[in-house]
Amino acid sequence: MSKLTRWDSKDESKRLPIYQTKASLIQAVKDSTFLVVIGETGSGKTTQLPQYLFQAGFCKDGKIGITQPRRVAAITVAQRVAEEMQCTLGRQVGYQVRFDDCTSQGTVVKYMTDGCLLREILADPVLSQYSVIVLDEVHERSLNTDIVLGLLKKNFSNPAQATKGRSFPLKVVVMSATMETEKLSAFLDNCCIFSIPGKMFPVTCTFGSAIGPKDTESTTYVKEIVKTTLDVHTSEMAGDILVFLTGQSEIESACDLLFKKAESVDYRYDVHDQTVEGLLILPFYGSMPTDQQRQIFQPPPAGIRKCVVATNIAATSLTINGIKYIIDSGFVKQLNHNSRVGMDILEVVPISKNEAQQRAGRAGRTSAGKCFRIYNKEFWEHCMPEYTVPEIQRTRLTAVVLTLKCLGVHDVIRFPYLDCPEERFILEALKQLYQFDAIDRRGRVTRLGELMVEFPLYPGLTRAVLKATSLGCQDLLLPVAAMLSVENIFIRPGDPDKQKEADEKHRALSTKSGGMNDFATLLTVFQSCKSSDRPSAWCKDNWVHWRALKLAFSVETQLREILLRLQRKDFPIETFDGNKSELLRWCLCAGYFTNVARRSVGKVFCTMDGNGCIVNIHPSSLLSEQKAELDWIIFHDVIVTSRVYIRTLCPIHYEWVKDLLPKLHEVNVYELSSVAREEVTDEEMIKWEKRKAAKRQPEVCNEDAM
Ligand code: CDP
Ligand code: MG
After folding, report:
1. For 299, which DSSP code?
2. Confidence class for position 379, pLDDT limits 50, 70, 90
3. In terms of domains, do 130 and 31 share one?
């Protein structure tokens, strides 16, 4: 405690709006099972509330768990709070995100992603180790937060239930920056709403003229962002700039361009405010190294204007102090279910008007600010929806439905959702789970499904790993699964000469792995780097990201641990007659038979899942130059621009998927709609079988084709 007082004496946290309400906030948590807390971004909810609860003795019986939809936020905030509480990160204060657990026995304030909490609920539905669960950033409406919210409501909905299966009651605090709190409170037994009074200063917003409804090319808006940022830097008074862009590559190219342009600014003549003497450009995105992220929060040196070029992460998850100017691209990178290809894909879409207001608001925290929108009024009116659609209504629910089923929630349609997903999304999820043999025709979780839910991976990939384990060749699949779980393995330099060199190195790695197989190339990269004496130097030589590889090594170890734990249970044993390359691809087919494509006319392929989508090989695939020789292929992911591209693929033999492909058409959505509602009776089962026998033709093939 004395350490805390030392921090408090610094006075910083006392200046946050939440400090004024400290005593009543603690009391409100004491008085209720559920509590909704609303307060502007930056008011101190995420960093302070858990500390208040800690000081008030809430950790006597159990831990305080705080969820974040984004992993970077969980890590950064935990670091900050550990500093404030003057303890080593991982001791009293820690974090857990997928594949990275920085907690210990003594951790009592634990920041984690909502996905991690969902996994904990799976292992211990009453969360017996926790005294308080704080669901943070609920307004973001991430899929996992929505599901956890439903589960907490279901399990702890009245005072008697709050202690069910536990020795002391659980407290649930739900925090939001913007969302309709009435709706949240109504959802949680009409619980109290605690508002943190905040003061916002006015922000003047202006629209640009360059970006209209047709200007969706990234090069166009990146150029406009750079131009506007430089204009603001030279013509506006001192104050930091926050730029909202879409993703890592756009942010990096914008920063490069900005850096070049900023070098030619003559500070004697070009800048309006003579106290401004330089520009400090800082990129900020999720997969950035943590030490670089720290810089974002530090005040710039005197006379220097800080300019942070960020993804949406800076909209509400993390607050940067000192921002006076916002430059808004109007776009965001979002995971959406694409019915044309029948998969979830990351795509760049216009933000909602509501989101645009949030972004603008970042400029008005400590004084009046300005927001420069690079898009025009027409774009605002015709392209931007009023509100962002919650993730649960726009992404594939396969993994979540499996988790719910494993938790004994059979009726996945009548589960208490804050906003119901469309029934067809639930049915799609059930269809895929059935195709993967994770559930049976009656909607019950199978043995394989129980194993699958243990892995924090895409279910298809898990299925491939489990297949490999049955064949005793998990050493081939685990590294591939790990490599597919980390982003950006290959470096793609902007400079054309260097790009040529990188391409050659990457091609050599592909050849080394037998060629023509992107998955095998990933395995080769993993193994070659791991067996090298100087792995980081090996990466540099081969134009491979060392940080991503390091993470892949750790992910592989963790997947291996999960497998070891499961292998103690009975595990089927199978055999396969073929060489190593065939073995790898055969195992992959077990999980990727939903992503099979066959060469169509010319150089394009056609998917086999009933959508019959025309796809092209992405230029970044090492197979893109050898299209002519390929016939049947499986692929890992899809990118949609003006065309549909597949990336990370390998050729297969038709015989390997011949028996699996019919499964894609075997079950129809009408059957599943009953399965979704409840466990199915024998009588109904017989009815289906009869109906099915009457209709030979598959019905689901074109369900999604629009
Ligand atoms: O959660 P909420 O948006 O209400 O506020 P918060 O994240 O707790 O932020 C409170 C203050 O801590 C803000 O002034 C942030 O800028 C600051 N903070 C920081 O300096 N470094 C971090 N890693 C996180 C927060
Ligand atoms: Mg927060």
Report:
1. P
2. very high
3. yes
Is residue 323 located within the same domain as residue 421? no
Candidates 231, 203, 208; CA nearest to 329 is 208
Cα 294 to ligand 1 centre (Å): 12
Q: Beta-carbon neighbour count of residue 85 at 10 Å?
A: 19
For 42-176, strand residue ranges (E) read 63-68, 93-97, 100-102, 109-113, 130-135, 171-176
Which residue CA neighbors atom 6 of ligand 1 most closely?
44
Handedness of CA 503, 504, 508, 514 (dihedral sign): positive
pLDDT surpasses 70 at 625: yes
CA–CA separation, 614 vs 632, rounded Å? 14
394 contacts: CB under 8 Å, gap ≥ 6:
334, 335, 336, 337
Neighbouring-strand partners of residue 634 = 596, 650
C-alpha R_g of the chain: 26
Kindly give the distance from the C-alpha atom of residue 317 to the centroid of ligand 2, in angstroms, as a whole number. Answer: 5
**Ligand 1, atom 15: closest residue by C-alpha:** 319
Atom of ligand 1 nearest to the CA of 48: 8
pLDDT at 158: 74
The two tokens of residue 471 are 């064949």
Angle at 436 between CA 431 and CA 442, to 5 degrees: 55
Does residue 132 sit in the same domain as residue 247?
no
ipTM: 0.98
Instruction: List the structure tokens of 644.
Output: 């549909």
* Residues of the domain holding 322: 203-392
303 and 218 in one domain? yes
Work out which ligand 1 atom sits closest to the CA atom of 80: 23
Any idea what DSSP says for residue 569?
S
Residue 86 corresponds to which tokens in the numbers above? 């003057």
How many other CB atoms are there within 10 angstroms of residue 46's CB atom? Answer: 29
What single DSSP character describes residue 142? -
Atom of ligand 1 nearest to the CA of 317: 3
| Among 1, 76, 383, CA closest to 221 | 383
As residues whose CB is below 5 A from the ion ligand 2, the structure lists 45-46
- Residue list, ligand 1 pocket, CB within 6 Å: 16, 39, 41-48, 76-77, 80, 297, 318-319, 321
Give the count of domains, the chain: 3
Quickly state the pLDDT bin for 353 (edges 50, 70, 90).
very high
In the chain, the largest separation of any two C-alpha atoms, in whole Å, equals 85
Residue 350 in this model has a pLDDT that exceeds 90:
yes
Residue 394, sorted as left (phi over 0), alpha (psi -120 to 50) or beta, turns out to be alpha
